[in-house]
Amino acid sequence: VSIDGITRNPDGPKGFVAWFGANGTATAVAAFPAAQVDPNDLAVLPTGDAVVVGGFKTSLTTGAGVLTAPAGVERAFAVTATIGGTAVHGFTLGDSSETRALAVDTDEAGNLGINLRTTGTIVLGGVAYPSAGGYDAITTMTSPTGSVLWTAGKVGSNGDDEPRALDIGLDGDLYIGGDMDNDANVFGTNYPIANPQAWVGRIDDPISEVGANRYFPK
User: What is residue 54's predicted lDDT score, i.e. its pLDDT?
Assistant: First the structure.
């Protein structure tokens, strides 16, 4: 990719993140090539570094090595790039199920809230979350380097559920939103619908609020 004369990994598919100055000129570009990659969102850390999330197939190269996915399966990724344009490390989420990261935000400590779209059962932090059919939505909180801190239960139905938005509020809670195209169970509450609809929820952070771990669908 070449932006304002800054070129990174010019051959083959790649994801990238670019920094721009006040005049709109690119100051740095970080790129990470893959056999097939689909970046979906980014968050800026307190340091000014950026975290990019999405999905990839086969392999994805970061500044700290190569991430791999099972043959023919999309795997969710998060890659951190420094403000100078160097991809310094990355991690994957999920196992053998199709998984893509759709949204990310960061708290003051640099921990990452990540919305995932999955098919099949997914294992996060040693806990298995079974499929409800179609695409399911799930939200997880990780350390900056990918250790799973906690995971909220799935938003699922026999249709498709896509968690497209996530924001960590000043209260430390996670505010999430998405869409569903069939009856959906949102954190224990069933919403019977006949047409595609949007949903919004709030998740208490069980680390910042000890013992909370409660879910508040709106």
Answer: 93
Tell me, yes or no, whether 38 lies in a domain.
yes
Residue 123 burial by CB count (10 A; 0-12/13-18/19+): exposed, middle or buried?
middle
Choose among 208, 201, 77, 87: nearest CA to 150: 208
Distance between CA 81 and CA 60 in Å, rounded? 14
- Among 55, 130, 60, CA closest to 93: 55
Instruction: Find out whether 201 and 184 touch, Cβ atoms under 8 Å.
Output: no
Q: Residue 64 forms beta bridges with which residues?
A: none
Average per-residue pLDDT for the chain: 78
The number of CA neighbours under 13 Å toward the Cβ of 161 is 29
Specify if 8 maps to a domain. Answer: no
pTM (2 d.p.): 0.81
Sequence-ordered list of residues with C-beta below 8 angstroms from that of 160, at least 6 positions apart, any chain: 134, 135, 180, 181, 182
Domain membership flag for residue 1: no
Domain hosting residue 68, numbered range: 13-217
* Number of domains within the chain: 1
Q: What is the pLDDT of residues 133-159, one digit of tens each?
A: 778 888 999 999 999 999 986 665 666
Residues 6+ apart with CB under 8 A from 127: 151
Confidence at residue 196, expressed as pLDDT on a 0 to 100 scale? 62
